[in-house]
Amino acid sequence: MVISKKEIILQNLSKELCNMSNEIEYIKRFHGQLDPYIILGYKMGIYALELLNCDLYWDMKIFAKMGHKPPITLVLDGLQLSTGCTFGKGNIKNEKLNENEVVFYFDNNICKIKIKANILKEIENSTDKENLALKYFKLEPSIFFKMELSLTKI
């Protein structure tokens, strides 16, 4: 049986970080509630780990351009959960640029992921954030993100 990179990452997360059987409950417990932005950050982190063929956190660096004003900054919580990069370790940084983009660095390769404008609008117009978050959790990353990958050494 072949195990995908995502499955390995998720197994490591559940074993190493919280031993909870349900990812949604893990996210909800960390943040206190479910929100579409934390789900986007969580999925974005897993997507970047897969694209860059990176194991969790030690060698990855993240430069986010999410600004400093909630609720968009909840993406940062999701990134920390899914990648293991944290502000405390210094391998994630956020700038006040409000570009809704995150740049991941691993092994001198770069992956830029930006949240699509229609997704931001859908979240803004939603009256039921928790159900929207649950919907997003089930969808593929290509629905939410524009991605640019550079596998050449920088």
Structure description:
- The chain is of the alpha+beta class and 154 residues long.
- The chain has a single domain, classed as 60s Ribosomal Protein L30, Chain: A.
- The protein is 44% helix and 18% strand.
- It contains 6 helices and 5 strands; from the N terminus they run αααβαβββααβ.
- β3 and β4 form a beta hairpin.
- It starts with a helix and ends with a strand.
Structure described in brief:
Helices cover 44% and strands 18% of the residues.
Describe the secondary-structure layout:
Elements lengths: L4 H14 L4 H9 L4 H16 L9 E5 L8 H10 L8 E3 L6 E6 L2 E7 L1 H9 L3 H10 L6 E6 L4
Parallel strand pairs: 1-2
Antiparallel strand pairs: 1-3, 3-4, 4-5
Helix pairs in contact: 1-3, 3-4, 3-6
Say what the CATH topology is.
60s Ribosomal Protein L30, Chain: A
Q: What would CATH call the class?
A: Alpha Beta
Largest sheet report = 5 strands, mixed
Q: What structural class do helix, strand and pairing data support?
A: alpha+beta
Low-confidence stretches: 16-21
Nearest-integer average pLDDT: 88
Query: From N to C, what is the helix and strand string?
Result: HHHEHEEEHHE
Which overall shape is indicated by the principal axes computed on the Cα atoms?
globular
Strand content is: 15-25%
CATH-scheme architecture: 2-Layer Sandwich
Helix count, per DSSP?
6
